[in-house]
Design brief:
about 25% strand; 3 domains; Beta-Lactamase; 7-stranded mixed beta sheet; Rossmann fold; 18 strands; 6-stranded antiparallel beta sheet; alpha/beta
Length: about 550
């Protein structure tokens, strides 16, 4: 029986249009001769024309294997069986109801499946999983430390023989632990290396000061910075291939009294394009965001401090709206993630390319949607509003603490209230909170009468069951990954009238009076009640 084509399955299920399929087939055809023809599924996901999960489900239907959407719990016997094959990041031995199941990302990679079937004497059970999920799970288990490049406190400050292995082992270890940054910091005695995981820095290892120049030069070479140029500030970027992953690295170098200090920001391309529905917004927030971004023109703003996930949310919104019939342009400082089917430009003040000038230039570039990385001055604010008034959809960020303050900030930047009222669609104020590990979280009960003032703000029942972190092999200190807590100002007719009249303080009062309005604290209380975050985490982040 002839196997149905992947594109046909996706079209039949309503996950893909015929025009989008023709586009991706043309791209696939043009990729021939450049290291082999790329898989159609990879191209569909790359251009965000089909969800990764939908592609995986279609592949499972093609080959007749079940689709796997469970937890990635390691099966020790399976790990011993396949050994180093797991390091390639495309297969994971999972435990499902005490049975061993091999979850693969590409069922047509017969090299892996045949090898596993041979090792298991033909008795292996296979499932198809999302490529990014399989890769992340396999990377975390296959290399939780540095293997041969790992240094602990027992080898504090010892010289390293192979610095190249150390450098690339750092990138591999950080990617496997879902770290967002690598901090390489010299002190008087040694070089401390820390990873930022789930928003907090964690000590990882140390090395001798004499190895620092060689380590820094390896990253300088990758970023095309002159070797030995240790006395100047540098901001650069480079790409690094890692198993099935492609990492985009942003390098920041600062000369300190003890030597070169490096921070490597890791942008995993497999994880960068998060789907909007998976960011963790409350259902009520999700509906308001959808309503706003589907509007044909106007402005959507995200607010909050540095590191609150504004950029990730904005990219997810663009990915949701992206199509071959839509022109998207972005101006950023710097460009943090690459978006297929979008024209992206970076701010370069030395060349006179600031946010306002690039925005003006892009208005002549026939855009439908514009992302302005940040509105930070009067000219940029006016250009953003002008673009929204002239029929464009604008996404940007502001550094304010809450939603109503965003309206006040635009006014302070010289935008007239009537223009704000007629262009602003919604403001999303958000923070990131650490999620409890589902494998080891521990339940306990709290009485409202025994709770302090901060705790009572997140308790909705007289005697409430909440959860706290404990720690296990699946997590770091009882936490794993992060989610968002948010407050949304959706500009309806009532809010529009208040903005036009300059009654910003009245906006906050009216929002609090609405039964369907969810404050950031309400949102955090929901996550506490559902056991997603701890009471302490809600207080730490929201207050």
């Amino acid at each position: 029986m002839k196997t149905e084509r992947l594109g046909s399955i996706l079209i039949k299920k309503g996950f893909l249009s015929a025009d989008d399929l023709d586009f991706c087939l043309a791209v696939q055809s043009s990729s021939r001769g450049k290291g082999g023809e790329e898989r159609l599924g990879h191209i569909l996901v790359h251009y965000n024309l089909a969800r990764e999960e939908d592609v995986a489900r279609a592949l499972s239907e093609q080959v007749g294997w079940p689709f796997y959407d469970g937890e990635y719990v390691l099966n020790a016997e399976g790990a011993r069986l396949i050994g180093s094959v797991m390091k390639e990041g495309m297969i994971f031995p999972a435990t499902v109801e005490d049975d061993l199941v091999f979850v693969v990302a590409d069922p047509y990679d017969t090299r892996i499946s045949d090898h596993v079937a041979q090792l298991s004497s033909g008795g292996a059970s296979f499932c198809v999983g999302r490529a990014s999920a399989v890769s992340a799970a396999a990377a975390l288990i296959a290399n939780p430390e540095w293997d041969n490049c790992c240094f602990s406190s027992s080898s504090f400050g010892q010289p390293v023989k192979d610095v190249h292995s150390l450098a690339f082992g750092l990138l591999e270890a950080a990617a496997g632990m879902n770290a967002t940054d690598i901090h390489i910091e010299p002190s008087e005695k040694a070089v401390e290396i820390r990873f930022r995981i789930d928003g907090l820095l964690r000590f990882h290892s140390s090395l001798a000061l004499e190895d620092l120049p060689r380590l820094v030069n390896i990253f300088f070479h990758k970023a095309e910075i002159s070797p030995g140029d240790f006395l100047r500030f540098h901001d650069a970027r480079f790409e690094h291939g890692l198993r099935s992953q492609s990492l985009d690295i942003r390098l920041s170098h600062i000369p300190t009294v003890n030597g070169s200090s490096l921070v490597l920001r890791i942008l995993d391309k497999a994880r960068s394009a998060l789907s909007l529905e998976n960011l963790g917004y409350a259902p009520e927030h999700w509906q308001k965001i959808l309503h706003a971004i589907r509007h044909p023109h106007g402005m959507v703003l995200l607010t909050g401090p540095t590191g609150c996930g504004k950029t990730t949310s904005l990219y997810s919104m663009l990915n949701y709206l992206k199509s071959i019939s839509t022109k998207i342009v972005t101006v950023e400082d710097p460009v943090e993630m690459r978006i297929p089917l979008a024209a992206q430009a970076a701010v370069d003040l030395k060349k006179g390319h600031d946010f306002s000038s690039v925005t003006r230039a892009f208005l002549r570039h026939d855009p439908d949607i514009m992302l302005i990385g940040e509105i930070r001055d009067e000219m940029t604010a006016r250009e953003a509003v002008r673009a929204a008034i002239t029929g464009h959809k604008i996404f940007s960020t502001l550094h304010t603490n809450d939603t109503a303050s965003a309206v006040l900030r635009l006014h302070d930047l010289g935008v007239h209230n009537s223009y704000i009222a007629n262009t602003l669609l919604c403001v999303v104020a958000q923070r990131l909170v650490r999620k409890l590990c589902p494998f080891c979280r521990e339940a306990y009960e709290v009485r409202v009468g025994d709770a302090d003032e901060f705790e009572r703000a997140y308790l909705t029942e007289p005697l409430q069951k909440v959860f706290r972190p404990r720690g296990c092999a699946h997590c770091f200190d009882g936490h794993h990954n992060r989610t968002v807590v948010a407050e949304i100002l959706f500009v309806d007719d009532e809010i529009r009238f208040l903005i036009e009249q300059g009654l910003v303080n009245e906006i906050t009062l009216r929002l609090k009076a609405r039964k369907n309005h969810i404050t950031m604290r309400n949102d955090a209380a929901r996550l506490v009640r559902e056991g997603i975050i701890s009471l302490e985490e809600a207080i730490r982040v929201v207050g």
